[in-house]
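Deliverable D2.4 — example input (C-alpha cells):
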C-alpha cells in the first residue's frame, strides 16, 4: 500500500487530501471542521479526519507533501525586500513575521501534526501542485496544462505538458513575480474596494453590470509575448513596495480614486457605474490574455 498525504496551508483555505494507491480516499478543507471561513491555519483537524477516514496512522504514511517550497518562497520574499529597499521598508517587518514566524518551519509542524517521521515530509512546488491537481483530476491521458495565479515561490504563470505515463514536464514557458495576471486582477479589485484574495469573485460579478469602455487603456498594462511571457507595466502596481492593495499612485491618477471598502453599491449612480465599467474592462483584458496564453500553449 502507498499512502500519500497532501497539505496546503498558511495562505488561504487550508486543506488536506489522502491518496492510497493513487486514489483519493479522503479530502477536506480545514474550514469545514474549524467553522472558520477560509481558515488558513495548519489543517490539523483536516489531517486527523483524513487519517481517521482511511483508518491509518501517521506512521503508515509513505509521504506528506506540502503544496509549495517554504524555503524557496521565503528566499524570494526577502530578496525582493532587499532589492526594492528603501521603498519596501514597510514590507520587511511583515515578511519577517510571516515567513520566519510560521511558514519557514511548516514541514516540521506538518510532521508533528500528521504523526509522521520528519524525513517523510517533503516540500512541493506551488505551480506544479496546481498543474498536477488539474491534470490528474481531469481524467485525460495526455494534456497541456496552464497555471495562472498571483505568485507561488516565484512563478506566476506556467505552461506544462502532462501524461499519465511520464507525469508533468518542466515548464514549456513561465513568468516570474512581479509580472502576474493574478496580481493585475487583484490590484484592480482592490481599487474598487474589494478585499484581495477574498473579493475577486465579487469583482468578477460586478463586471457583468458594466461596459468595457476602458479596455484599450487597461490592455496596455498587461501583455503576453509570443514566447508565453506575461509583462505588466510595473508603474501601475506596487506589490514589491509593501502596499497590501497592490496598486500605485499612477493607477489612481489614470483610473480615478479608489472606492471606499464596504460601501453599498448603487449602480444607478454615475460613480458606481464607472467602477462597474472598469471591472468589465479588466475582466475582458484578463480573458484575452488567458486566451493568448492558451493559444501559445496549444
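Example output (designed residues):
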Amino acid at each position: 500500500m502507498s499512502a500519500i498525504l497532501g497539505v496546503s496551508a498558511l495562505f488561504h483555505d487550508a486543506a488536506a487530501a489522502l491518496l492510497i494507491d493513487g486514489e483519493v480516499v479522503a479530502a477536506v478543507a480545514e474550514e469545514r471542521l474549524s467553522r472558520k471561513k477560509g481558515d488558513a491555519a495548519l489543517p490539523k483537524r483536516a489531517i486527523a479526519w483524513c487519517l481517521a477516514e482511511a483508518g491509518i496512522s501517521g506512521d503508515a504514511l509513505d509521504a506528506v507533501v506540502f503544496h509549495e517550497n517554504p524555503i524557496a518562497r521565503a528566499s524570494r520574499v526577502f530578496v525582493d525586500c532587499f532589492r526594492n529597499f528603501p521603498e519596501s521598508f514597510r514590507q520587511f517587518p511583515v515578511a519577517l513575521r510571516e515567513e520566519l514566524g510560521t511558514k519557514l518551519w511548516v514541514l516540521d509542524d506538518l510532521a508533528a501534526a500528521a504523526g509522521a517521521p520528519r524525513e517523510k515530509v517533503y516540500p512541493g512546488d506551488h505551480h506544479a501542485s496546481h498543474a498536477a491537481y488539474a491534470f490528474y483530476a481531469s481524467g485525460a491521458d495526455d494534456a497541456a496544462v496552464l497555471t495562472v495565479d498571483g505568485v507561488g515561490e516565484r512563478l506566476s504563470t506556467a505552461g506544462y505538458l502532462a501524461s499519465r505515463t511520464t507525469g508533468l514536464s518542466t515548464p514549456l514557458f513561465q513568468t516570474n513575480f512581479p509580472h502576474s495576471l493574478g496580481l493585475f486582477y487583484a490590484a484592480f479589485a482592490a481599487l474598487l474596494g474589494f478585499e484581495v484574495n477574498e473579493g475577486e469573485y465579487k469583482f468578477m460579478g460586478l463586471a457583468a453590470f458594466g461596459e468595457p469602455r476602458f479596455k484599450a487603456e487597461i490592455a496596455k498594462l498587461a501583455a503576453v509575448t509570443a514566447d508565453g511571457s506575461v509583462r505588466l507595466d510595473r508603474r501601475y502596481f506596487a506589490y514589491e513596495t509593501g502596499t497590501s492593495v497592490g496598486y500605485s499612485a499612477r493607477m489612481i491618477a489614470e483610473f480615478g480614486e479608489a472606492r471606499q471598502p464596504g460601501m453599498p453599491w448603487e449602480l444607478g449612480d454615475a460613480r458606481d457605474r464607472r467602477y462597474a465599467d472598469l471591472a468589465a474592462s479588466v475582466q475582458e483584458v484578463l480573458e484575452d490574455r488567458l486566451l493568448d496564453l492558451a493559444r501559445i500553449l496549444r
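The longest strand covers residues 155-163.
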